[in-house]
Amino acid sequence: MASPASANMNAVRETMDVLLEVSRLLNTGLDMESLSICVRLCEQGINPEALSSVIKELRRASDSIKVLTLTQQ
Amino acid sequence: MAALDQKSPNVLLQSLCCKITGKSEADVAHQFQYAVRVIGSNYAPTIERDEFLVSEKIKKELLKQRREADAALFSELHRKLQTQGILKHRWSILYLLLSLCEDPRKPSNRVPVCSYGALLAQALPRDVHSTPFYYARPQSLPLSYPERSATAHNSSMATSGISSMGVFSINGPGPTPPSLLTGPGPQAVGESMRGSRLAWTLPVSSSPSGAAAAPRPPSGPSSSPAPRPPQRQRRDGDGSAEIGEAALVRDILYVFQGIDGKFIKMCSPENCYKIDSKVPLCKSLRDTSSRLAELGWLHNKIRKYTDSHSLDRAFGLVGQSFCAALHQELKEYYRLLSVLHAQLQVEDDQGVNMNVDSSLTLRRLLVWTYDPKVRLKTLAALVDYCQGRKGGELASAVHAYGKTGDPHMRALIQHILGLVSHPILNFLYRWIYDGELEDTYHEFFVASDPTVKTDRLWHDKYSLRKSMIPSFITMDQARKVLLIGKSINFLHQVCHDRTPPGKIMPASKSTDSPKDATELFTDLEGAFQSKIDAAYFETSKYLLDVLNKNYQLLEHLQAMRRYLLLGQGDFIRHLMDLLKPELVRAATTLYQHNLTGILETAVRATNAQFDSPEILKRLDVRLLEVSPGDTGWDVFSLDYHVEGPIATVFTRECMSHYLRVFNFLWRAKRMEYILTDIWKGQMCNAKLLKSMPELSGVLHQCHVLASEMVHFIHQMQYYITFEVLECSWDELWNKVQQAQDLDHIIAAHEVFLDTIISRCLLDVNNRSLLNQLRAVFDQIIEFQNAQDTLYRSALEELQLRIQFEDKKRQREEMGEWGVTAEQEAEENRRVQEFKDTIPKMCSQLRLLTHFYQGIVQEFLRLLMTCSDESLQFLSFRLDFNEHYKARDPRLRPSLGATRGRRSSNI
């Protein structure tokens, strides 16, 4: 059982590497961890359109908060 | 990671929120709530779930950013991703990445964050449910948005040809709707950008369309705008007088699906789409639309084929999969049409004046449909070519089309071929692994004749359907495939061997499944060949093992040689001894059961008894058909019963050959036997008859003739035994030992029998030789009779003389006269009478010798003319001291000639 499991892990890792590379190509700004979360969400059948809008919104929100805190300081 | 996999979307979302905002779980509660709402809101996805489209979009996006190398890299990565197959929703991931894509050359979109921040606070909760594109709406967008990105955006929409409004909105973080930008300035720029963009994106995204793109000048912004604006103006201006281009486009879209449009209609006599000639239309538009209408015609053609065949059951599985493949291609085509329709719909909804440069025009259609057109053309040609074909023939036809230099066409044909050959491969695997033929529609290249009984199964039941052998399978492979399945069936039905086929081929079975059909047919030489070879090797080996071990094929072969070809000398000799008194009688008085009893006695008395009972029980006597005047010698024959699996090797024809050979050998053997008897008589009587010197001349004649005959028969026997039987047997045995399948054995055995038949002079070419030989045999028998009568009368005479002498002596002892004058006169008269018969015997013998020598000379003369080398040698051996040559002038020149020829040959 050990070898199939590890082979599977390898395949998963390879897939993630490929996806990370694509992500880098497209300049999405996702790191490995967020990407893996996104992949898992997508695999659960979540609408990618919605997910992308959420991510963008979150980024904007965090940026604005940063700016706010900057201006407050 | 594995542990994380089990988590619910909510947990994942939360960790995502934390990750992106960089805060703790408690701090992101607000964002999290928002995220859950957006994700949970079930607005219909506005995008098509198609991985291919998404990946194409990504490529275009990269190309748009002038990153051709990255586009190529992406294609590579995408291919890798496809091969791994871990992900279920690849399109989804790719789509997500595409949505998050940002052009690195653009200034970061995140800079004017202040306004978004404020926006987020109020606008979010309200807007989420209605549409995800809330952020595209705010009117407060800065109008100083870079023009370049806007135009670039438009072009991406145009080139993709499958863009929808959803993509439109997501692509940029918030572009101004093009309507806001309408003004003469940006419009012109956009136009020029678009033109040049088209020119250089097309060759990359769809290379077959390179031909279409090439004529356009690979222009920069400076050259392109010139031809475009006039066309646009004309279009707007002509709208009232002629049909608008939009109407034509709508018509064309119908025509694409094979439905008649308002202006463009199917013209049945000419079998093409035509624009109503009464409709006022400028020539260029007319030309363009007729070029586009070709697509509809092609579509109709393919459609007609699939419609007429997909319901036809007799068309068979291969035909069905061909139809399915065509349907698949048509589906792709319909998808394109639906996108085009959607585009048209969007335009209608938004009114005519909006977004003019991204609307559908005939020229755009021409470019976008170039690729599908080439595909449909290929398919239509294929459909034409495959008309009326089915099964393996159909696959051959498709395969023939795959031999093209165009990689795209080749890929298309390979794909279709993969689908088409799948059923064939299924048949093939069922056949070579289970021996089952599930070919209801006669599509496979192995045919079975259900009327053939099991005893002829190997020879007649299965055959190759030559026309159904797909061209990617060689004749040799096909023959092997036939043989494999035949062997399995033979094992099952004739040998009653119930070993499951899996046991015959333990190694290969597990790795085979018809799934990898296309790979097998494409890299045909390697894997497929070795698979067939392995199956062939294993099955044949198993079959031979079964035949040898369970059915003792080789033992039977040897038994044939020992009994029917007289290999077992002691047995044959003894049998002849025992049979002699029976066989001299007339053939009609013979009874089979008597002979069978004698046969058994002979078996028990000789080494034959040590043979296995399996063989002995098959040995039997057979009486040939009796013709009037036949003696037992003429009709007697041994027989060997063959039943079951070995009858496949020893067929009826084979057995009749064996019987003919046996008959010949038996006759030759009998001659030897007779001559032995003659010689024995001569030896025994020579001493007795010494007292009759008057006989010595006759006896000498007898001796000379007998030794002449002995020489002849010995040479004949030598020839038959060593030149014919042993040589052929050795060949046969070697071949049988090396045989890889049953067919090899059968062939070798047939060659063996044929050789023996022809070398034993039994075939048609040697009929005259055989007749001479028979005549020689007859002379020997006649000589035996003559000598027998000679001896009988001589011995009788001898007996009388001895009696006479005895009587004389008795009388003398009794004191009487030994003989009276009367008695003596009587005796002398008798002796004189006997002496008178001697010249008659002499002349009879001389006549016999004369005939005999004449026949032998004729035989030798015929031998001269034979081309067979071993027969030539026989003639040399028969006439080793040129005795006959000296007597017969006819032998001389031909002998010299043949010798001369032989030496020149060497």
Automatic annotation (TrEMBL), chain A:
Species whose genome carries this gene: Anabarilius grahami (Kanglang fish)
Keywords carried by this UniProt record: Cytoplasm, Cytoskeleton
Pfam families listed in its UniProt record: MOZART1 (PF12554)
GO BP, sorted A to Z: gamma-tubulin complex localization; microtubule nucleation by interphase microtubule organizing center; mitotic spindle assembly
Subcellular location: Cytoplasm, Cytoskeleton, Microtubule organizing center
Entry-linked InterPro entries: MZT1
One CC-aspect GO term: spindle
Endpoints of the signal sequence: none
Name of the protein in its database record: Mitotic-spindle organizing protein 1
Family designation: Belongs to the MOZART1 family.
Superkingdom of source: Eukaryota
From TrEMBL, chain B:
Low complexity bias spans: 205-214
UniProt biased composition (Pro residues): 215-230
UniProt-recorded Gene Ontology molecular function terms: gamma-tubulin binding; microtubule minus-end binding
Entry keyword set: Cytoplasm, Cytoskeleton, Microtubule
Protein name (record): Gamma-tubulin complex component 3
The keyword Nuclease is annotated on this UniProt entry: no
Localisation per UniProt entry: Cytoplasm, Cytoskeleton, Microtubule organizing center, Centrosome
GO biological process terms, semicolon-separated: cytoplasmic microtubule organization; meiotic cell cycle; microtubule nucleation; mitotic cell cycle; spindle assembly
Taxonomy, superkingdom: Eukaryota
Subcellular location, principal: cytoplasm
Positions of region (Disordered): 173-242
Family: Belongs to the TUBGCP family.
Domain Gamma tubulin complex component protein N-terminal, first and last residues per copy: 249-549
Gene Ontology annotations for the cellular component aspect, listed alphabetically: centrosome; gamma-tubulin complex; microtubule; spindle pole
Natural source organism: Anabarilius grahami
Domain Gamma tubulin complex component C-terminal: residue ranges: 553-884
InterPro entries assigned to the protein according to its UniProt record, in alphabetical order: GCP, GCP_C, GCP_C_sf, GCP_N
UniProt-listed PANTHER family: GAMMA TUBULIN COMPLEX PROTEIN, GAMMA-TUBULIN COMPLEX COMPONENT 3
